Amino acid sequence: MDEVKLRCELGVLTRPDGSVLFSEGETTVVAGIYGPVESKINKTLVEKACVEAYFRPKSGLPGVKDRLNESMIRNVCEAVIAVALFPRTAVVVVVQEMQNNGQLISCALNATCLALLNSGIDMKCMYAAVTCFLDRSDSIVLIPPADEREIKGSFMFVFDSVEKTILASHTEGSFSIDQYKDALSLCREESTNIFNFFKKALTIK
Amino acid sequence: MSEQYKILHPVKYYRDYLAHNIRPDGREFDKYRPIVVNLGSISTADGSAIAKVGRTTVVCGIKAELCQPKAEAANEGFLIPNVELPPLCSSKFRPGPPTEQAQVATQLVADILKNSECLDLKSLCIFPDKLAWCLFADLICLDLDGSLIDACMIALMAALKSVRLPVIDYDPALDNKQANLEHRKPLNITNIPSSTTFAKFDDKIVMDPTVDEEDLSTALITIALRKNELCFVHKPGGASVTDEQLLKCIDESQKRAIVIEGIVETALRSLQ
């Protein structure tokens, strides 16, 4: 099985506390983290930091689909960042889509994990997002087929680094429960590669 | 006394109930609330339905308009859902632009419709590249008590099944449209997707949460099925779940999907 090519460059931007240019195959995003910073008065939480996520598409104004991506990024980051350590502050996560070849949400989530590690903010664990695709011949592959119409469904899972339990899941298309289980185990195996890539990326810098 | 306890220590209040394997409204963890569906409630719309899941109430109205298809999908019509959460349904919402929760709900409903392929958009096309039906499905929540997506999907599928579109005679050379309002045909709906919401609290998973349970939960899972195939498994972050818990949720939503399909079919027969 071919492996998805991962590339990243940490600290590409100067203003954010943590930033990364990350690509997963042909899908590329830039992510920036500001945190902990002053939060808006109406969003201030007394006992923990409030996580704000912003997702900007490659072109056009943000629409409802980007709101869904923002809600996924925010919920995953809220579960993973040690928010109780920074009350009455905000952690701002901004993701800019550069290129999309089908793995957009998982690429954005992996980029935010690397950016959080780059920013030095306290986290409970790392997380890795993996996408796999179901093609017309009913086989589950990691690399998307070149023709979009070949894709019958796609599965995205996020695993945490400690126990490899499922932090998030998102699917497209329809499929049987067995195909879902197969995709889950394939993605879980691939997540080990992603965690190794994160560790290498941090030590090289 | 218990009302004050619930307001002062909501987490402990809920935890005490869960320790006895029961929820504050008396349900067990895997029991869902009663579902009520009514079709044809809005006479001015081309199709409509009201669905109630427990106390969560969603009204769906479908209006059909004629439009030109998009250039990249010249033989497809449009089905555009829009979920509104007005200030009436909950104290969390104020008048103004759609909140993030409403936009996310709209996207989730649109995703489930696309994934399940319940309505073939090609059947909405009258003449390729010139004329097609555009169905605007407006889902308005009147009362928000948890499981919003479940109620939206039931109302939407029931309303779609009740739509009767007039037959259009179109002459492409003259660009002349004639609508025959007496002769109406139903849509071709191939399956009825239904969704089930689960909430995770500590290490327990409850089915069909109320809004209080959703606010206290550490994670929410939405699973949509059509017939026996999964078409949407959505867990937007939050606390992690084990594989067994996720597969158990899929199992339970399969059983509920059969019940929901039966309810929508029964409601349809009452319309005819």
UniProtKB/TrEMBL annotation, chain A:
GO molecular-function term, one example from the UniProt record: RNA binding
Pfam families xrefs: RNase_PH
Alphabetically ordered keywords of this record: Exosome, Nucleus, rRNA processing
InterPro entries per UniProt: ExoRNase_PH_dom1, ExoRNase_PH_dom2_sf, PNPase/RNase_PH_dom_sf, Ribosomal_Su5_D2-typ_SF, RNase_PH
Gene Ontology CC terms: cytoplasmic exosome (RNase complex); nuclear exosome (RNase complex); nucleolus
Superkingdom to which the source organism belongs: Eukaryota
Biological process, per Gene Ontology: nuclear mRNA surveillance; poly(A)-dependent snoRNA 3'-end processing; rRNA catabolic process; rRNA processing; U4 snRNA 3'-end processing
Subcellular location: Nucleus
Domain Exoribonuclease phosphorolytic: 6-121
Family from the record: Belongs to the RNase PH family.
PANTHER family: EXOSOME COMPLEX COMPONENT, EXOSOME COMPLEX COMPONENT RRP46
Protein name as annotated: Exoribonuclease phosphorolytic domain-containing protein
Source organism: Zophobas morio
